[in-house]
Amino acid sequence: MTQMTLTFDAVDEATPGPKWAARWQRSWPAYEAWFIARGGDQGPSHADCKNALDRYMPELVATYDRLVVVAGGSDRAARFLSTWCPPTYLGGCSLAAVANKKDVRLVRNYDLSPELNEGLLLRSTWSGRAVMGMVEFLWGLSDGINDAGLSIALAYGGRSETGEGFGVTTIVRYVLETCDTVAEALSALKRVPSHMAYNLVLADASGRTASVELYPGGGIKVMPKAIATNHQSGNTRADRPAFTRTFERRAHLDDLRIKPRKLNRQFLKSPLLQDRYVQGFGTLFTAEYDPKNCALGLTIKGDRWDQSLDNFEEGQRVAHYADGSVNEVANDQRIAGYEGVNWAQAAEVDWNAVAQDYANGKGRAISAYFPSSRYAMEAVA
Hints:
Elements lengths: L4 E8 L5 H20 L8 H11 L4 H10 L4 H8 L9 E8 L4 E9 L7 E5 L6 E6 L3 E7 L4 E6 L11 H11 L3 H10 L6 E6 L5 E6 L5 E4 L3 E2 L12 H4 L1 H10 L4 H7 L8 E2 L4 E10 L4 E6 L2 E6 L6 E6 L4 E4 L22 H9 L11 H10 L1
Parallel strand pairs: 1-4
Antiparallel strand pairs: 1-16, 2-3, 2-11, 3-13, 4-5, 5-6, 6-7, 7-8, 8-9, 9-10, 12-13, 13-14, 14-15, 16-17
């Protein structure tokens, strides 16, 4: 049965440290099981993965090395984090970017099961520049924006063929860490191969927008209009088009003639908004990026959460997709519970128990799993 609740955390951490480590420990057991089940252990070696990063994305190598260390340094974790020729993964989304002389907006709907999203909005300065976006695969991004105002979002391209390349979420991270403009991003995308078919929409502070199809094993096609859903051009067949309604959503976006400031409203209603959560295809969030102000408006079941790179506030929202409610969690009650943690005691924590609690929707503050916190609670009792 599909879990109908998702916790969203807004986290600010300049470089991978205790907060990212807590997220890794929480999420890795499930990702590791997925990686093994999908044949990840039969994939490229750690050395091959590192060589691919050195060749295609050398600017990310220092961050990758640090992440591997923080994650514990295992061979499997290192190969997983590289996302070089990873197991296949799918998803559904609608994307569009619109600009005029005054404004620019990039908007996306993220359509999937609540069980399959990390719910993490992370602000970081891993390579010296500020980047903010929705995390996938623990350091990649499904969408985001950087301090130059470049914004980008991805959508599954509708076919499951694979080629030699990187997971697209790492490619999105790379673009935002290294590029200032759409033109620079397109140049990077031509050079870095994707392992599957994906569609990207981009926008920058100058008002330039673009839509790109990424092909398995490398190669791109720049599309005439900055919109995308879950299929690609040409004679390729889309995966389950009747279920995803990809053609219906694409046609709606293609017909839009709208100002940037009004684009977000279209994503908050049918046919772009999806509500089939039980079937694993509901809109988990709508992200509206404003490149001129380096800002993001995140709409979760009608509740708006505004953030910007210059004024980012950590916080938490719990979305209940069954009844449509969203609860803001007070700072001292956050499930993430990063504050007040004695990380010297991390080795004494039963991280498998932590993962099980969160998977079952019973996660407590991370600090509650640490010995000092347990002893304090026992003393009070």
